Amino acid sequence: MKAEITPPDTLLIIFGANGDLSKRKLLPALYHLDVEGLLPKRWHVLGTARSEVSDDEFRQMAQAAIAEFGKCEPEGERWERFSQRLTFVSTKFSAENTQELTAAISDAEDLMGDTSEQLLLYLSTPPQTFGTITEGLGVAGLAKRCRVVYEKPFGMDRSSFEELDALVQRELSEEQTYRIDHFLGKETVQNILAFRFANGAFEATWNRAHIDHVQIDVPEDMGVEERAGFYDRAGALRDMLVTHLFQVLSVIAMEPPTRLESGPLIDEKVKVFHSMRDLRPEDVVLGQYEGYPDEDGVADDSTTETFVAVRVFIDNWRWDGVPFYLRTGKMMAEKRQTVTMAFRPPPATMFPEHTSRHLARDRLTFELGGEGGVEFTFLAKKPGPSIELGPVSMSFDYGEAFGSGLIDAYERLIHDALLGDRTLFTRADGIAATWDLLEEVLNEQTSPLPYARGSWGPDAAAELIAPRHWYLPDRPEIDEAITTEKATS
Ligand code: BG6
User: Fold this and answer.
1) For 112, phi and psi rounded to 5 degrees?
2) CB-side exposure of 365: number of CA atoms within 13 Å?
3) Which of 122, 127, 286, 415 could bond 448 through an S-S bridge, CB–CB 3.0 to 4.6 Å?
């Protein structure tokens, strides 16, 4: 993993620079990296998109976005200095139309006073545009000297992945290709590696002998906001499951890598995808929140899924027979990002059955959202003359333990791309394997089941996991049920 902190001088070109991702994540991330002193000594951001946007409009848009979504106020001298390094070019870049962008790159290089800086391109555009832009880079002669960050999803299914991959490999080497999945940049996802491989306590239990099942649960309370154009074509399967949730699963399930370096780490994650059983339609529940087709930009008869829950099996020695349940959806009751490892019950219980029957089993929960943390929940005897058990927990919170000031996922990954560290990016063979897993489900996609806004998705998702249950929503009332039962029995 990386040792140096200050990246080399860089001209960063953002495609789709006035889009939702750029406003919510990229521009705020860059500003915070600047505040933390993590940008190169000399850098420049050239935004580009099809719409007409002037340099000043781009700067105003960036300021408003950073004020709304960023961690630090864009004001004063620091903001002035930052904003002067932002320029914009409006163009429909393609193999047939490269001049406007290349001219704008020369202008930006003049402003930087150098032409030896590295070129980093960030494709924050819909997946359908990746091919056209990549071809254009080849024709413009830019492919020879740049790194390219591709947003997810990389392809829309196995065959479009293959087409895109072939084109990208024709223009760029693997070392120049950065396929981003920002969940891999989350502090707690990396902490799973530390938790598993730097401690003796839990790794011994990290297998089928001790784990009953695993849940990766990422409900979201927001809808599609301004991204309907993209989302209605992608849906939850492509936007979240085959990307973020599968990547997190691979970190949970992988074998220890020989070294904490890009190659060995990614090798182990890819092995997990190869060991996963192809998803069958009966392992999948799709949902659509009520009123979704009425959202701006969504087709009136849209059958796009805004919710997905799946049951996955990994057919290898470590995980044979252990189900992994994955769930995510828009407009659900709460925004959370959790991974729960549920332990098997002890072989025999010496406690009266009614004292623990309703309780969830002991489990380890990783909170990936916010500042992140880890919680271990287990049963303890309640103080008092009778034997009565209740759930208690021990927890670790990043903010409390190490203070705030952490850099978030996008900040980390942009910084890694600036430094040329590909450890936390994905590889083509891994993505190919994930598309294979979904092939049957994508081909035989059924209509999604409706669910109410603010709910936990269609009832079928509860049936999918039964007789187990989703740990979210948190259920303090289970504890109450015991007390009540005891009082009345
Ligand atoms: C994005 C998805 O990649 O991740 C969105 O396209 C989703 O649909 C988002 O809302 C979640 O990201 P975060 O920042 O909440 O971890």
Assistant:
1) -75, -20
2) 23
3) 286
Candidates 226, 239, 366: which one to mutate for ligand 1, based on the most atoms within 8 Å of Cβ?
Answer: 239
244, 248, 295, 371: which to mutate for ligand 1, most atoms within 8 A of CB?
A: 244
Return per-residue pLDDT of the chain as tens, 489 residues.
455 689 999 999 999 999 999 999 999 999 999 999 999 999 999 999 999 999 999 999 999 999 999 999 999 999 999 999 999 999 999 999 999 999 999 999 999 987 778 999 999 999 999 999 999 999 999 999 999 999 999 999 999 999 999 999 999 999 999 999 999 999 889 899 999 999 998 889 999 999 999 999 999 999 998 889 899 999 999 999 999 999 999 999 999 999 988 899 999 999 999 999 999 999 999 999 999 999 999 999 999 999 999 999 999 999 999 999 999 999 999 999 999 999 998 887 777 766 655 566 789 999 999 888 999 999 888 899 888 888 899 999 988 898 866 788 999 999 999 999 999 999 999 999 999 999 999 998 789 999 999 999 999 999 999 999 999 998 654 544 444 445 444
Q: Please state, in angstroms and as integers, the Cα–Cα distance from residue 418 to each residue in 8, 119, 172, following that order.
A: 7, 9, 17
Cα separation of 146 and 22, whole Å? 20
| 311, 317, 321, 323 alpha-carbon torsion, rounded to 10° | -30
| Residues 288 and 305 sit within 8 Å (Cβ to Cβ) | yes
- Residues present in the chain in total: 489
**32 Cα to the center of ligand 1, angstroms:** 19
